[in-house]
Amino acid sequence: MANQETPVLSVRNLKQHFKSGWGKNKLVVRAVDGVSFDIYKGEVFSLVGESGCGKTTTGRSIIKLYEPTDGEVYFLGKRITAGYESLKREVKRVRREAKKEILRIKEKGDNDKEAIERIEKARDERIQALKLEIKERKLDYAGKRAVSNIDTLKEQLDNFEAEAREELDALKAEKGEDSDEVAVLVKEQNTKRNQLKKQIKAGKVDPQKEEKQIMKRMQMIFQDPIASLNPRMIVKEIIAEGLRIAGERDDKVLNRRVNEMLETVGLLPEHASRYPHEFSGGQRQRIGIARALAVSPEFIIADEPISALDVSIQAQVMNLLNDLRQEFQITIMFIAHDLSVVKYFSDRIGVMYYGNLVELAPKDELFKNPLHPYTKSLLSAVPAPDPHFERQRTRTAYDPRMHDYSEELPKLHEIKKGHFIMANTAELEEYKKELT
């Protein structure tokens, strides 16, 4: 059961835009365009939608395979990645507005230097703060925040050394080298110098090691069980690779952990010496799951782990994931387009369309009270194992032109506790009537 007070993952206004071409021919694909949600400890949160809606891109941006265009991702309370496109636009806006204000003052003929200086000072302070935030967001993505802190302290120490030398030379020239004032100043400077050196020493954290410790608690099961496994590595090396990256070097520990993971996913220890091409699709996906579990993660992104498998194998993998979830208390973000599978496996479901989250609700609520027309369209396409029902089933087509957003753009509203929907004010009132 999910703990609703402890978000394992928080996504805030995540955007992932891809650009191609240049000049007038430049094309911007808004694969993910402002997605926000929380995933709580112990739950299975599913993202559903048709192919190309941005589900996989969202997962890859969260786990830092892509650098996001904008937005922030928090994992276990720490910001692990963030985009900065909106901050760059804000820098340009601040400069533009300040320029307009200065021109307005000059056009009046006042030539108020104090007012112009105030505008320029406010502009420079705001731009400096924005650039600092951009730098920090870049460091978050690269996992180098610890380095930036140490660099700042080292810069402070260098500045202190230069200022201390000048101050000491001036006092020696005035009072003499053997004076009591010089001795007191030297003592004060040494105390300050030692404090800065201690801070630098205490802050010497290997940023890559710190990043590995955080990111090994988050793993991903990829969609294609063939492409996601290195064909030149045996299964033992594939599964142990994450452990080696995390710092484990003992071969006995690695062998024991690999054998444990193989048995956990229903394979045998003797499979460890084989290559991926020697296994079936279902077995390869089990190897991918074993690789993800090897480092004991707290959160797993499962990117359509069963879409490339036969129906009988799909059931085996789904049951395996369900058992592993209960046994290891793992939080899962499950990406899929098969709503019948999602209904069986999920606690909450988010529906994506063209890079936006159009509806989000607990599983039972979403299937009982679907509100957004796209959600209804998806549900109408779910096949039922009843030929008589299938002959009479009517499918609902979704046309995005049915929405009129010319006057007011939509945003995500909580229409009912835990039930969110993308709508503007007029649509929200209609959805409330439908819900009651």
What kind of sheet is the major sheet?
A: 8 strands, mixed
As a whole number of angstroms, the C-alpha radius of gyration is 29 Å
At the first level of CATH, the class of the largest domain is Alpha Beta
Number of DSSP helical runs: 15
Proportion of strand residues: 15-25%
Unreliable residue stretches: none
Give the overall pLDDT as a whole number. Answer: 87
Helices and strands: which structural class? alpha/beta
User: Which bin fits the share of residues in helices?
Assistant: 40-55%
Please identify, by name, the CATH architecture of the largest domain: 3-Layer(aba) Sandwich
Q: Count structural domains.
A: 4
End-to-end distance: 28 Å
Q: Output the CATH homologous superfamily of the largest domain.
A: P-loop containing nucleotide triphosphate hydrolases
Question: Under CATH, the topology of the largest domain is which?
Answer: Rossmann fold
Please count the beta strands (DSSP E, at least 2 residues each).
12
Shape verdict: flat
User: What is the ordering of alpha helices and beta strands?
Assistant: EEEHEEHHHHHEHHHEHEHEEHHHEEH
Strand order of the largest sheet: 6-7-8-3-9-10-12-11
Topology:
Blueprint: E1 3-20, E2 27-41, E3 44-48, H1 55-62, E4 70-75, E5 78-82, H2 85-108, H3 113-142, H4 145-175, H5 180-202, H6 207-215, E6 218-221, H7 235-245, H8 251-264, H9 281-293, E7 299-303, H10 311-328, E8 331-336, H11 339-345, E9 348-353, E10 356-362, H12 363-368, H13 373-380, H14 387-392, E11 411-416, E12 419-423, H15 425-435
Parallel strand pairs: 3-8, 3-9, 6-7, 7-8
Antiparallel strand pairs: 1-2, 1-4, 4-5, 9-10, 10-12, 11-12
Helix pairs in contact: 2-3, 4-5, 7-8, 7-9, 8-9, 9-10
